[in-house]
Design a protein that fits this description.
Elements lengths: L5 E4 L7 H10 L1 H6 L4 E2 L5 H13 L2 H16 L9 E4 L19 H16 L4 E7 L2 H15 L6 H7 L6 H12 L4 E5 L11 H7 L4 H5 L13 H13 L3 H18 L1
Parallel strand pairs: 1-3, 1-4, 2-3, 4-5
Helix pairs in contact: 3-4, 4-5, 5-8, 11-12
Length: 266
């Protein structure tokens, strides 16, 4: 009897990942009954932190730390002989490009190799399947920019950010490098734009890759789109806050206060 797959959704940022994880979280008990326990970011926190650190530094010691933490996480998982597993955390590919000199996902290649080593040693590499959600290049660059404005300290304007990312070749090139690095483990790309009509959004094709049929998907609860872009006025206000407030804590507090004020006025 063939064991169910271990499906790892390891990227990319700003491609519907929050919606995917919302569906997985909302349906965690149901998916477990269907034979697919779920492993999300909060359970992967030590590895996620190390992945981000490595993507910023490219330090081999940081990569070794990431590998060690993934091995420790996998060692604590159950045997899974008759069950599969669905893992989802875009930070397993490192930081969102566009900050700290990071202009692509080159760190994702050594990171995914460490993931294969850890899960493969425990369960066998033949059970592994990787899936990456993607998005059209120019749309993704704009989305990444506004995420940096919202969650970080971005002070450049959008055109400057586009220029900074002008050399980025898009997701097909990133995926070619990843697929070459983990072959023969399968790597599947799922375009966010192709999931617009799915009731479960981008989670639907991911769950089908795990082997769940439409009848099983019909019994799952849908969630609204998560982490959507703020309106233009709020985005502009956040950019102004970033430019006026260098202190991280005060900057975050100012953004929270603005959101609370706008929510109360809605």
């Amino acid at each position: 009897m063939t064991s169910p797959p271990i499906l790892i959704h390891a990227g990319f940022h700003k491609t519907g990942t929050s919606t995917v994880q919302g569906v997985l979280r909302e349906n965690k008990a149901a998916l477990r009954k269907l034979g697919f326990p779920v492993l999300l970011r909060w359970k992967l926190r030590p590895a996620v932190d190390a992945a981000r650190g490595y993507s910023a530094s490219a330090d081999p010691v940081g990569l070794a730390k990431f590998g060690d933490r993934v091995h420790r996480i996998v060692a604590d998982l159950p045997p899974l002989e008759r069950r599969g597993l669905i893992v989802s955390a875009e930070e397993l590919s490192g930081h969102l490009p566009g900050r700290d000199g990071i202009v692509d996902y080159r760190a994702a290649v050594p990171l995914v190799q460490e993931i294969v080593a850890a899960f493969g040693a425990r369960y066998g590499a033949e059970r592994l399947r990787f899936v990456y959600t993607t998005r059209a290049r120019d749309t993704w660059i704009d989305s990444a920019y506004w995420e940096h404005v919202k969650a970080g300290a971005m002070t450049d304007d959008l055109e400057a950010f586009r220029n900074q990312m002008s050399g980025w070749g898009g997701f097909p090139k990133e995926l070619d490098r990843i697929a070459d690095a983990v072959a023969p483990v399968p790597v599947t790309a799922l375009a966010l734009e192709a999931t617009a009509d799915e009731r479960l959004g981008p989670a639907a094709p991911i769950l089908r890759l795990a082997g769940l049929g439409n009848d099983a998907l019909a019994g799952l609860t849908a969630v609204g789109r998560a982490n959507t872009r703020l309106d233009a006025e709020t985005r502009a206000a956040f950019l102004a806050i970033n430019r006026a407030e260098p202190d991280r804590d005060r900057r975050a507090a100012a953004k929270r206060a603005l959101l609370e004020k706008r929510t109360s006025q809605a």
